[in-house]
């Protein structure tokens, strides 16, 4: 066992050196791939950005329309348009959104600030609650609570987020009237008057939906990990030294499961992102999800590309953190010394 | 010195700390579909350990030594079924009593360093929930572990340090029974000897030590009695002096062959292999390899007293 650890450490050192350059290259390739793919998808879609811009009933002359199209470069060949967009991007110019008629970067900044709040709260909440539920269920494996949690999670994992959202909306907002139907603030209230309480109140249902939608994975993972660990040698030894189940949990289990669980939670950023887009649409929450829907429906190429890039970066960051955490868990890297 | 202890023992007949009677362990396995079968790996294992003595347990790997230790401490896996009786200080070791004595009176020294929690600092871990910080310092000093060791995580320990840490875990309480499962591999000859000498010292102070070991030389030098395990049962339990005296003083063909197989006796290996745990033959478990086998060996071979020891062989004299 010693041998394999020692053998693993040179690899760990190598990995540490290669890491930053490799990450940058991978991220760059990812962004190029995502932007090309999104570009093809949008330009091939049947939606005509010009029609959606001027409106189907527009009385604008053909000549004026042509002028607009030429201004946007809509008549140029697709590769040329892509390269032009990419060139502008390198100068920090994301372009102007057709839908909102404002710079893409402003819209993304504004919408992300709403979405990040929603996502981070749901992420933390589902992480903490899921972890606690997983620990409790695993400790009483086969018991009533365990069975209930397992069923609950399996059902949730196969339930679509928008369906959960609709369910929450119709029950809590429509039937009980406890929460607003949607949006991020009371309708018609001037933005300057919107209070923190307003924001929080409007966040509750979307957060709840997103939390519930993403809690299944972490709960089942934690439970499984705990069950595996219970038969592990160091738990057996701690038990042989007189530790009670409570002491085992506090002293060894939580600590040893927390790190892999956090890793899993980071790795599920992409699912969280997808769930968030759907939850936002159901609740008309003005985040990145609803902006995506609007942009797609309007053939808003610059906005969609901008959103695609930022979303990819976000998910990439989640996976990167997860990978680094895996590295921390790797005994070879650990033997290298720097992480603990 | 062992003469003295032997007579002291006879003077007080009830010094037995641990008594294992007809221990059986089998593992539930699912074979072909949902049929659950039980593989017996330990059968009618009997031994006892008295206060003030070291009982060395020897036997090739797979003979069930670790399972015996784990059964005493109640840390067998969930699919293990246990039969027979384990008594501690005259009382059946029930679940509740086990919970009371583990870590306070009954101490396990486990077989390998991966019995340490990788994410807990060594010092905190060795003290555990019942230990004493001062005793930890004492144990570390005795085993040549620097005080900084306390702040280390297990992965930082060398193999030899990890061994000494494991041994120290048994010293932070007030043990009455120490169960050491191969505590010395990876230690220098000097440290291994020092460890055995320490067990000897503790035994002389009244502790009962069940010492599972592959180091027969040290066992011969420091133990009071030796139990030879084979295929999950006790073949012979005899005073160490008999093992020292050589094969003619021993009772069972297996322990005789075991002594013959030692380096100093010319490394004569026993032909054949230990029967596979799940596929134990009826009758004497050693019969397949025994030079003195007869047809009667296919029948039951109960353990019986013979010349101040115990043996599981119908032919032994
Ligand atoms: N969890 C288990 N399930 C099935 N068989 C087991 C299990 N643990 C141990 N055994 C078997 O029991 C026998 C004795 O094991 P063990 O007590 O570890 O031997 P050793 O004398 O080397 O310490 C071995 O043949 C092993 O394969
Ligand atoms: Mg063993």
Task: Write down the domain tally of chain A.
Answer: 2
Low-confidence parts of chain B, pLDDT < 50 over ≥5 residues?
A: 1-9
CATH class value of chain B = Alpha Beta
Order of helices and strands of chain A: HHHHHHHHHHHHHH
Shape of chain A: globular
CATH class descriptor of the largest domain in chain A: Mainly Alpha
Q: How far apart are the first and last residues' alpha carbons of chain B, in Å?
A: 28 Å
Q: Give me the CATH superfamily of the largest domain in chain A.
A: MetI-like
**So what's the oligomer here?**
heterodimer
What is the makeup of the main sheet of chain B? 8 strands, mixed
Provide an overview of this structure.
The complex is a heterodimer of chains A (340) and B (317). The two termini of chain A are 20 Å apart. In chain A, helix 5 (104-139) runs antiparallel to helix 10 and helix 7 (161-175) packs parallel to helix 11. The longest helix of chain A has 43 residues, at 2-44. Mean pLDDT of chain A is 82; it is low at 1-14 and 332-340. Chain A has 2 domains: 15-90, no CATH class; 106-336, MetI-like fold (Orthogonal Bundle). Helices cover 78% and strands 0% of the residues of chain A. Chain A has helices spanning 2-44, 49-54, 62-72, 78-90, 104-139, 144-158, 161-175, 196-230, 233-240, 245-267, 269-283, 288-297, 301-329, 331-336. Chain B has helices at 2-11, 65-73, 95-101, 122-127, 133-142, 159-168, 189-204, 216-222, 240-245, 253-260; strands at residues 16-31, 35-50, 54-58, 80-88, 91-92, 106-109, 177-181, 208-212, 225-230, 233-239, 304-306, 309-311. Chain B has an 8-stranded mixed beta sheet with strand order 6-7-8-3-9-10-12-11, with helices on both faces. The longest helix of chain B has 16 residues, at 189-204. Chain B starts with a helix and ends in a 6-residue tail after the last strand. The A-B interface holds A 1-2, 5, 231, 233-234, 236-244, 247, 251-252, 255-256, 259, 331, 334-335, 340 and B 70, 73-75, 77-78, 99, 101-104, 107-108, 110, 112-120, 128-130, 153, 155, 158-159, 169.
């Amino acid at each position: 066992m010693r041998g394999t650890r020692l053998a693993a450490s040179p690899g760990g050192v190598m990995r540490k050196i290669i890491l930053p350059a490799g990450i940058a290259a991978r991220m760059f390739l990812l962004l190029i791939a995502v932007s090309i793919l999104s570009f093809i998808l949008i330009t091939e879609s049947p939606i005509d950005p010009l029609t959606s811009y001027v409106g189907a009933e527009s009385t604008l002359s053909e000549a004026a329309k042509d002028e607009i199209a030429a201004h946007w470069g809509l008549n140029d060949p697709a590769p040329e348009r892509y390269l032009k967009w990419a060139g502008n991007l390198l100068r920090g110019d994301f372009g102007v959104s057709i839908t909102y008629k404002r710079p893409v970067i402003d819209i993304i900044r504004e919408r992300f600030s709403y979405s990040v709040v929603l996502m981070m709260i749901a992420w933390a909440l589902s992480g903490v609650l899921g972890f606690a539920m997983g620990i409790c269920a695993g400790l009483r494996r086969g018991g009533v609570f365990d069975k209930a949690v397992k069923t609950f999670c399996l059902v949730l994992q196969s339930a679509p987020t928008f369906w959960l959202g609709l369910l929450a909306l119709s029950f809590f907002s429509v039937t009980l009237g406890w929460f607003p139907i949607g949006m991020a603030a009371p309708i018609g209230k001037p933005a300057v008057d919107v209070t923190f309480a307003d924001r929080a109140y409007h966040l509750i249902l979307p957060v709840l939906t997103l939390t519930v939608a993403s809690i299944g994975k972490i709960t089942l993972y934690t439970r499984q990990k705990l069950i595996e660990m219970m038969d592990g040698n160091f738990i057996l030894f701690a038990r042989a030294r007189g530790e009670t189940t409570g002491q085992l949990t506090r002293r060894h289990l939580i600590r040893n499961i927390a790190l892999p669980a956090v890793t899993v939670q980071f790795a599920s950023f992409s699912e969280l992102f997808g769930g968030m887009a759907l939850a936002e649409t159901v609740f008309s929450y003005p985040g990145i999800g609803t902006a995506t829907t609007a942009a797609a429906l309007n053939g808003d190429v610059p906005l969609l590309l901008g959103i695609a890039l930022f979303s990819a970066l976000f998910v990439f960051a989640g996976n990167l953190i997860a990978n680094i955490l895996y590295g921390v868990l790797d005994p070879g890297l650990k033997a290298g010394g720097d992480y603990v | 010195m062992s003469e003295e202890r032997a007579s002291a023992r006879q003077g007080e007949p009830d010094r037995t700390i641990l008594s294992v009677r007809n221990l059986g362990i089998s593992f539930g396995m699912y074979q072909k579909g949902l049929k659950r079968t039980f593989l017996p790996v330990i059968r009618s294992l009997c031994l006892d350990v008295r206060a003030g003595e070291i009982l060395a347990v020897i036997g090739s790997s797979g003979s069930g030594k670790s399972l015996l230790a784990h059964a005493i401490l109640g840390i067998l896996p969930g699919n293990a079924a246990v039969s027979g009786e384990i008594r501690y200080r005259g009382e059946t070791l029930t679940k509740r009593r086990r919970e009371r004595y583990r870590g306070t009176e009954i101490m396990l020294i486990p077989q390998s360093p991966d019995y340490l929690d990788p994410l807990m600092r060594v010092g905190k871990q060795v003290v555990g929930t019942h230990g004493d910080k001062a005793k930890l310092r004492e144990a570390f000093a005795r085993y040549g572990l620097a005080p900084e060791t306390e702040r280390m995580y297990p992965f930082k320990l060398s193999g030899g340090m990890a061994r000494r840490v494991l041994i120290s875990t048994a010293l932070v309480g007030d043990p009455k029974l120490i169960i050491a499962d191969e505590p010395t591999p990876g230690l220098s000859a000097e440290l291994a000897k020092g460890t055995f000498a320490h067990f000897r010292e503790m035994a002389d102070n009244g502790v009962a030590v069940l010492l599972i070991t592959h180091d027969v030389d040290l066992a011969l030098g420091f133990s009071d009695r030796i139990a030879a395990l084979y295929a999950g049962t006790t073949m012979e339990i005899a005073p160490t002096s008999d093992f020292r005296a050589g094969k003619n003083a021993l009772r069972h063909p297996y322990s005789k062959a075991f002594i013959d197989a030692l380096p100093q006796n010319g490394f004569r290996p026993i032909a054949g292999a230990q029967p596979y745990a799940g596929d134990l033959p009826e009758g004497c478990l050693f019969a397949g390899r025994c030079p003195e086998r007869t047809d009667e060996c296919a029948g039951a071979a109960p353990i019986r007293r013979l010349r101040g020891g115990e043996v599981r062989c119908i032919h032994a004299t």
